[in-house]
Amino acid sequence: MTPEVDYNNTVRADNSWDVYYHRILVSNVILNNLAEATGTEQERKDLEGEARFARMVLFMLVNTYAAPYENDAQADATQAAAHKQCHQRGEQEIGEGNTW
């Protein structure tokens, strides 16, 4: 992990990947639950467009800057670890046992 420096010149661990993947997760949650969303049809379409755009931009960042996998086994292991981490973070935010 590469450290990052905030506006107060405080060195912190770089958690940008965690933040970016969480934003992709939130975008997917929004898209998966649009049918239950309240608001006008136009508001739901706007929300869908914003979520798809955010997911696409973040996906492009990952594809641009992430190192390629060496083989399918490495890709599968990385995907499983990322899914587990996102699920754990989601449970922390909405409460264990709840669905999103």
Which labels suit this protein?
3 helices; 2 strands; two-stranded antiparallel ribbon; mainly alpha; 100 residues; 6% strand
Summarize the structure in words.
The chain is mostly helical. It is 65% helix and 6% strand. The chain has helices at residues 16-32, 41-65, 72-94; strands spanning 3-5, 11-13. The chain has a two-stranded antiparallel sheet. Strand 1 (3-5) and strand 2 (11-13) form a beta hairpin. The longest helix has 25 residues, at 41-65. The mean pLDDT is 75.
Mean pLDDT comes to 75
Number of strands: 2
Q: What level of helicity do the residues show?
A: 55-70%
Structural class comes to mainly alpha
The fraction of residues assigned to DSSP E strands is 5-15%
Following the backbone from N to C, one meets helices and strands in this order, namely: EEHHH
The strand order across the widest sheet is 1-2
Instruction: Detail the poorly predicted runs.
Output: none
Task: Characterize the biggest β-sheet.
Answer: 2 strands, antiparallel
Shape: globular
User: In angstroms, what separates the terminal alpha carbons?
Assistant: 30 Å
- Count of helical segments? 3
How much is the radius of gyration in Å?
16 Å
Give a short synopsis of this structure.
The chain has 100 residues and is mainly alpha-helical. Helices cover 65% and strands 6% of the residues. Helix 1 runs antiparallel to helix 2 (41-65).
